[in-house]
Structure formats: structure tokens, C-alpha cells
């Protein structure tokens, strides 16, 4: 026999007068633009590191070839993920624009 518990009704959230405004909350202090910029910077760093390792491999200065291959795969996956995220955001935007009020 499966033990089930009843679902309790949702209660409304009451804001205290002492609660801090949204802007001062450190968890939400970063804007979406800043978070997106930081994520794109990380993808860019991976691309640059991959390019550097490929140049070292081509010049014969890289001792372990697998390092270049692993970094190229990391950079490729990060770029692919970024492109998929961009595509989903554009699809959502287009869907919102098609919505009739």
C-alpha cells in the first residue's frame, strides 16, 4: 500500500514591512544582462583557449595532443549550447509577438 499525504492548500505570502526591496536582495542583484554577458564571456574564453591549444599543436609545442581535443570539444559544446539557448529565446520572443491581445 502506498502512503499518500494530502495536499495542503496554498497560502498567500505576506510581506513584512521590514522586508528588503527587490533591488537590495543580493540573490537578485545581478541583472539578466550582466548574467548573460558573464556567460558569453566564459564561452569566449573557452574558444580562445581552444584556439591557443590548436596553435600549439600545429607548431608542435603541445606535449599531450588530447588536451587540444578535450578543449576543442568543451568549446564546441559551450558554443552549441549558447546557440540553442539563443534559438529558444528567439522562438519565445516570436511567439509572444504573434500573441493577439
Polypeptide structure, described:
This protein has 101 residues and is mainly α. It has a domain at 31-98. It is built from two helices and no strands. The longest helix is centred in the last third of the chain and has 34 residues, at 65-98.
Radius of gyration: 23 Å
The arrangement of helices and strands along the chain is: HH
Instruction: Give the oligomeric state.
Output: single chain
Q: What low-confidence regions span 5 or more consecutive residues with pLDDT below 50?
A: none
Ends apart, CA distance between termini: 49 Å
Mean pLDDT across every amino acid position:
82
User: Looking at the structure, what is the overall shape?
Assistant: elongated
Structure characteristics:
about 100 residues; mainly alpha; elongated
Short description:
The protein is mostly helical. It has two helices and no strands. The model has no long low-confidence stretch (mean pLDDT 82).
What is the element layout, followed by pairings?
Blueprint: H1 32-59, H2 65-98
Helix pairs in contact: 1-2
